[in-house]
Amino acid sequence: MTVQQSVLFIVISRVGNLIMSSNAVNYPKDCKPVNASTKNAELLKRLKLLSEKLKCEVTNEEADTPNRYQDLMLHLTNSQFLSNKNSDVRLLLACCIADIFRVFAPNLPIENLSLLKGVLLFIITVIENVPDKGSSMYQYYLYLVENISVVETMQIALELGDGAYVILRQLIKQSFNSVNEKNADEHIQGMLMGMCSKLIQGVDQISNIVLDAIFFFIVQPQKINNREAYRMARDLIRSNQTTLEPYVALLLKRGLETGILDECELISQKKLYDLICELHKFAPEMISSALPILVNQMHNEDVSVRREAVRLFGNLFGDQNSRMADDEPEVWNEYLKRFADVNEEIRRICTRNAEDILVFHPELRGQVTDAVILRCQDVDENVRLEVLALVQGLAKRKFEALSERLLTHIIDRIRDRKVRVRHAVIRGLSHLHRTIFSNDELTNLEQSSVSSIFSAIMNHYYQPLLEDRLLTEKIFVLNLIPYKLDENKRMGILINIFLNMNNYGVKALEQILMKQSFQRRLLRNLVKLIEQTVQPQKGKTIDDVIRGIIECNPEPAKFSLVFRQFLTYLTNDKQILLSLKYITGKQYVCQKVESAVLEILQRLRDQKVSVECLDAVRCLFECCSPLQFDGTAVSVLVDTVVTLIKDNIDGSQFNLYYKLIKLLKIVANAYPHCFVNGPTLGSLVELIQIENFSGTESLLELVIAISAEFKHELVAKDMIDKYVKYCECISVNGTPRAAKYAVRCISKLLNTEQTRVKLGNIFQDSLLHISASDPQCCTALKTLSSCVEVDTAQFCNELLEILKTKIMDLLLDRSAGNVVFNQQSTSNNYSEQSRNGTICDETYVQIKKHCLKFVANFLVSVAQFSECDVEPLVRNLLKLYSTLLETKGDIFEKPCSPTHMGEFRILAGSSILKLATKPRYAKFVTADDLITLSTLGYDEESEIRHRFFGKLNKYLMALQLHVEYMGLFALVTLYEDADFQNKVRVLVDANITKRRKCLERSEMKDFAPYYQPEYCIAYAIYVLAKLPSFESTKCEPELRRLAESIWFLLEIFNARKEPGSLEFIYNIFKTIKNSTDSRLQDCTKEELQQKNEKIWALCDIGILLISYRVKNLMKDVESKPLLNSFMQIFKANTKVYVSTSFIKQLKTKKTNTRYKKADTAEEATKSFIRHSLTHNSGKSTKTPSALKVTVGKKNFQASDSKGWDSENE
User: Fold this and answer.
1) Most C-beta atoms within 10 A of its C-beta, which of 609, 661, 1060, 1153?
2) What percent of the chain has pLDDT over 70?
3) Domain spans of the chain?
4) For the whole model, what pTM was predicted?
5) Integer Cα distance of 60 and 99 in angstroms
6) What are phi and psi for residue 987, nearest 5 degrees?
7) What is the distance of C-alpha 229 from the center of its chain?
8) Distance CA 35, CA 50 (A)
9) Helix spans in 208-363 (H)
10) Average confidence (pLDDT) over 270-299
11) Residue 596: how many CA atoms within 13 Å on its side-chain side?
C-alpha cells in the first residue's frame, strides 16, 4: 500500500468513526452485522451474504428512499475494513461498496470528497489483484468489474476536480498491471479500457501524469514483460488519439527541447526516443510535430544527441509498416547522409538499422545498398564488421534482400588489412555459405549466387599469411564443405562449387586436401613408430616425423612444445593411441572420426592437459581429420560425376568433363583409399564405356593416382583388366597426351613382368607409326617416350638408335624418300598462314614439336642410365636449341606461322632447362647457351615470356636449377606488364624463401654459391650486359631501362629486410666491378674494354640504387662473394662508368611515381598469388639430383665454371 493510500485510509477512518458514533448501521434483510473485529473466515461469510443481498437491491430512486444504506457505506469504508490484508475480504468489500454506489446512482453516497477519493482508489487497488480463473472468487471479481463498468462508477472521479487525474492515472496503471498472458480476458480488458477511455474523455485536460501511466506500458521493459498490457495501452491511445494528440505533442516537444519530462515518474528522459518510436508504429500522426526537432538533432554538434536521433530515425524507417520515407522524403535524404557521418558509432548505427529497411522496404533497397557498400571500405574496422553482420542477417531473414553487389563488396573484405576484420569476414561468409547451401528451400540459382564466396576464400588461401591459411583450412571443413551434412548434400555442394571455381581456387582446394593427406600420413607414421617394439634408431625417426608435423603449423616454435606434451600422453594412453590410429587409418567412417577426435580431447581434459596443448591438438585435428571423405562419400561423388557426364554427352561439354574428372583426381590424390570399393570402381569402369568420352587423359591420371591402393584389394582385379585393355588401345590410337598417361597407367596397374610384356608389344606397334605420312605419328612418338620413361633399361638402347635415325630424320627433314605431309593423310590437317602468306601444314608442325619433346624427354629419362652414351647427342641438341632461339624458331624447310615459331622457341628453351636440371647434362650448358636462353625473357610474344618464366620457376622451386638461372627473372621488366611483374615478384620471393630453408640444412653450407639467392644478382648483371639493345654505356634511356631490371630484384631483397642480405649484394657489385669477363679474350682490346664497361656500368647502377633507395645499409660489412670463373679478379676499379647526369636522374627519380613504391615487392607478396609449389606440403622432401653431384666439391670456381668453359676445353 502506498503512502498516499495510507493517508487516505486514515482520513476515511476518522470521518467514518465520527459518523458511526452518531448513527446506527442499516443492513439489508437477513444480513448479520459486519464488524472489523470479526475473524476473516466469519467476515467472508457475512460479506458474501451482504454482497448477494445488495445485488438484489433496487436503486434508491426506484425505492424512493434517497439515503438508504448511506450509513452502511460509511461503515464499510472505515479504515479498519479498507486496511484488511485478506484479498478475498477486500474483493467482497469492494463488491458491496460498488453495489451501494449502484443503489445511490446517479447520486453520491459520500459527500466528503477526500473520503470519496479514497474509496475509488480502494476499488482500483482491488481491481489490480485478479483471482485465478478457477477459484470461486473469480466470479465476484468479474461482477465487480462489470458493475463499475455498467454503472460508470469511475466517472464519479470527475467530481474531484484535479483529483480526477490521480484516479485516472491509478486506474490506468492498476488496470493494465492486472492483466497478463495467464489471466487475459477480452471481456474484462474491454470493460477496463472503456472505463479509462470515458474518464479520459471526461476530464478537462490530460495531465502528464496520465500520459506517464499510459506510456509506461508501451516502452521497454514493460512492452516485453507484459504484452497484454502493451496492447491495451496501444489500443487506448488509438481510441483516444484525437484527445491525446495535442498533449502528447506538447510532452514530446518539451522533452526534446529541454531534456525534461515534467511530472513523469514511470518513464525517464532516456526512454523518450523509444517512446517516439513506439508511437510511430501505431499512431504516426502523434509524432509529426516532433519531426522538425528530431531532424535538427541529426545535425547537432553534440555527438550523443545526434547519435540518439539517428538511431531513432533508423528504427522509424526500418519499421515494417512505416511509410515515413514516402511521407517525409526530405527527412529520408537527411538520414541517408548520416551513413557518412564523421562519428564512427553513428555510421555503425546506420549500418545496423539498414537491415530492417532492406528487409521490409524493397523500394528503398537500391539507395540503402549504395550507402552500405560505401561502408564496406570505411576507415573504422568496427563499421566494416557491422556491414558483415548486416549481410549475415539479411541472408537469414530475407535472402532476396541481399544485393549481389553488396555481397561482392563484402567478399572483397577478405583481403582487408586488419586481421580482425579479415578473419571475421572469412568466418562470417563461410557460415553464410553453409547456411545458404544447407537450406533446401532456396533455389539452385539463389545458391549459385553465393558460390563466389568459396572461390574468394580459396583464392585468399594463396596469401602469405599463415594464420589466414590455417583459418581457411578450418572453415573448409566446418562451413565450405560442411562435414555434418549427409554425403549427398556434401558432395553436391562440392561439385556445384567446383564447376564455378577459377584455376586459383582449384589449386587452393588441391593444396588443402593434399596438406590434410600429408599431415595424416605423418601422424600415421608416428602411430606406427610408437607401436613398434624394436627400439634402435626409433627415436631419430620419430623426431623426423615430429619435425614434419611441426613445420605444418604457422607457429612451429610454440607448437613444438605443446605437441611434445601431447606426444607424452599419446605414448602412455593406449586409448588415445587407438583413436588416433583410427583417425589416420584407411578403414574409417566420417561420423566415427568426429567421435574419435572428441574422445581424444576429452581424455586430454581428464588428464588436466594445459589449455594451450588442448587448443593446439584441436586445431591439428580440425585441419587434418578425414571428416568429409570416406568410402561412402567418394562413392556418391563418383556416381554423381558419372551421371552428370552421361547427361551431357552431346560432345560440346569438354570443359565440364575436364573439371569433373579433375575434381575426382584432386580427391583421389588425397584420399586414394576411398576409391577402392565396388561401387566406385564400377562407376569408373562406366566412364571408359561411354562412347566419344573426351576426358580420357584426366581419367587415366585419376586411375594412376589410386593405383597404389589396388595391390591391397582383390575387388579391383576386374577393373584392372578392363583398364589395361583400354590403355593398350589409347596408347596406339589415342591423342599423344592420352597415350602418355596410358603407358604410365599400365605400369602402375600391373607388376613388373606383366608391364614389360605389355609395353614391349606397345613399343613394337608404335615403331610402325614413325612416319610423316602416318596420322598416329605424334601419338607413337609420345608412347615411345613414355615407354623409356617407365622402363629405361628395357628400351633405351633400342630407342637411342631409332632416335638417331628415324626421329632425327623427321626432325631435320632428312627423309628425302618419304612422301612428306600429304594433305590427305589426316582429316584433322588444319592450316595456318606463315609470315609470307604461304600456307603452313599443321601436321608438319605437330610432328616437329613432338620430335623436339621426344628428344628432350628421352635424354631426361636416360640421365641416370650411364650405359647409354648420349653425350654427343646432348652437345648437338644444345646447338640445335640455340639455333632455334637465335633464328626465332625459323629453321625448318617448310614455312611456319609466327605462332608455330613461338612454340618452337618455347620448346627449345624448355628443353635447355630440362637438360640443365640433370647434373649429367648441366656441364654442357655454357654461358653462351644461358645468354641465348635469356632471349625468351624478352620475347616479343607475351605468352612466350609468361610460359618461359613459368617453366623457369618450376625448376627453380624444385631446386633443380642453380642460382644463376634465377637471375633471368630480372628480364621481366623489359616489357611493361605490371600485373605479370607483380606475380613474378611473388615467385622470386618464394624462391628466396625456398633456398633459405635449403641452406638451413647443415650439409648445404658448403654449397652456398649454388643456392644462396643473392648470387642471382651477379648473373642478372651478366645477362643484362649482353642484351643486344645495350650498345653503349652512354645510352641513358637504355641505362634507365636496365636500372629498373636491377631494382626489380634488389627491391625484393630490400622488402624482406633480412640481415646482411643487401650488404652481401653490395659486395657482389664491388667484386664484379673489380673483375673482367674472361670469355672475351678473343676480342680486341677496344671491344674487350667496351663490353667490360657495360658490366661495370651496371654494377655502378646497382651500387647507386642501394645507396639511394636502401635505408640503414652497413657498407663496411666485409664479405667475399665467390663468383663464377668467367669473372676474373682484375684490379681495384674506382672509376664510375655512368654519366653525372644519369646519376642525378637516378637520385631525383626516387621521388618519381614509379619509385615511390618502395614496398612494391612486399605489397605484391601480400596481394598476389603464390605459386602452388611454394606451400605444397605434400611434395617430396628428398634431395634433388642437382644437389647430389655437388657433394664434396670445395673449389666453387672450378666446379661451377666447368660447364660454361667446356667449349674452351
Assistant:
1) 661
2) 87
3) 19-204, 300-415, 418-501, 511-532+540-627, 631-713
4) 0.74
5) 12
6) -65, -45
7) 47
8) 12
9) 208-215, 222-225, 227-239, 241-258, 272-282, 291-297, 303-318, 324-327, 329-337, 344-360
10) 88
11) 22
DSSP, res 155: G
Alpha-carbon distance 677 to 309, whole Å? 67
d(CA 238, CA 215): 13
Backbone angles phi, psi at 626, to 5 degrees: -80, 75
The C-alpha cell at 1003 is 650439409
Inter-axis angle of helices 574-584 and 590-606, nearest 10: 150
Q: What torsion, rounded to 10 degrees, do the Cα atoms 196, 198, 201, 202 define?
A: -110
Q: Write the pLDDT tens digit of every residue in 1052-1092.
A: 998 888 888 888 888 888 888 888 877 776 777 888 888 88
C-alpha dihedral sign at 914, 915, 920, 926: negative
Dump the DSSP string for 391-448: HHHHHHH-GGGS-HHHHHHHHHGGG-SSHHHHHHHHHHHHHHHHHHHH-TTS-HHHHH
Half-sphere exposure (Cβ direction) of 649: Cα atoms closer than 13 Å: 14
Residue 1096: half-sphere exposure toward Cβ, Cα within 13 Å: 23
All 3 cell numbers of residue 1100? 655502378
Q: What is the structure's pLDDT at 714?
A: 58
Instruction: Over range 582-594, report the average pLDDT.
Output: 91
Evaluate if residue 115 carries a pLDDT over 70.
yes
Kindly report the number of other CB atoms within 10 A of residue 771's CB atom: 18
pLDDT at site 1048: 93
Both ends of the chain: CA-CA distance in Å? 118
Q: pLDDT tens-digit profile of 726-772?
A: 898 988 888 899 999 999 999 988 888 888 999 999 989 998 888 88
* Cβ atoms < 10 Å from Cβ of 151: 19
**Do 802 and 760 touch, CB atoms closer than 8 A?**
no
Beta bridge partners of 1127: 1077
Give residue for cell 557460415.
431
pLDDT in tens, 442-462: 777 777 778 888 888 888 887
Nearest 5°: the CA angle 457, 460, 463 is 160
Give the CATH class of 300-415: mainly alpha
**Residue 209 scores a pLDDT above 50:** yes
Hey, is 819 helix, strand or coil? coil
